[in-house]
Amino acid sequence: MTVEEIKVAYKMEYLQSGVGKSFNQLNGKPVSGIKTVLWYGNGKSCTSQGRLSFDKMFFHLVRTGKVERPSDIETCPKCGGSGNVGYGPDGGICYKCLGLGYQRKS
Fold it and tell me: Would you give the DSSP letter of residue 3?
């Protein structure tokens, strides 16, 4: 599935605040420091203090069991789905899946 297909299938909306800014309200409630939001399903959200990509937020929801993993994606065999190999450059981020923990089936 492409990112656009995932957004449609899981009813997701991905929002990032402007550079140097953060959201001050989410769902009508005051917040501070939130820079990235992924709305999904029945008005639930996955939020981040930093600027995260759609992929990182989506696979966080997959790992925590809140969203079902798409059938054309499998757990990364190098890192076992953690996104980290524990050694090497860039803090040990797995180069095979770019730190996501998942990759497309080959």
Answer: H
Q: Please check whether residue 56 is in contact with residue 100, taking contact to mean a CB–CB distance below 8 angstroms.
A: yes
What is the C-alpha to C-alpha distance for residues 67 and 78, in angstroms, rounded to an integer? 23
DSSP letter assigned to residue 8: H
**Confidence band, pLDDT 50/70/90 cuts, at residue 106:** low
The whole-angstrom separation of Cα 90 and Cα 40 is: 30
Q: Which two tokens stand for residue 31?
A: 């917040």
Using CA atoms, how far apart are residues 42 and 92, in angstroms rounded to an integer? 35
The model's pTM? 0.76
pLDDT tens string 19-44: 888 898 888 889 888 999 999 988 89
Query: Token pair for residue 79?
Result: 């890192």
Across 44-75, b (16+ Cβ under 10 Å) vs e yields eebbbeeebeebbbbbbbbbeeebebbeebeb
Percent of the chain with pLDDT over 70: 99
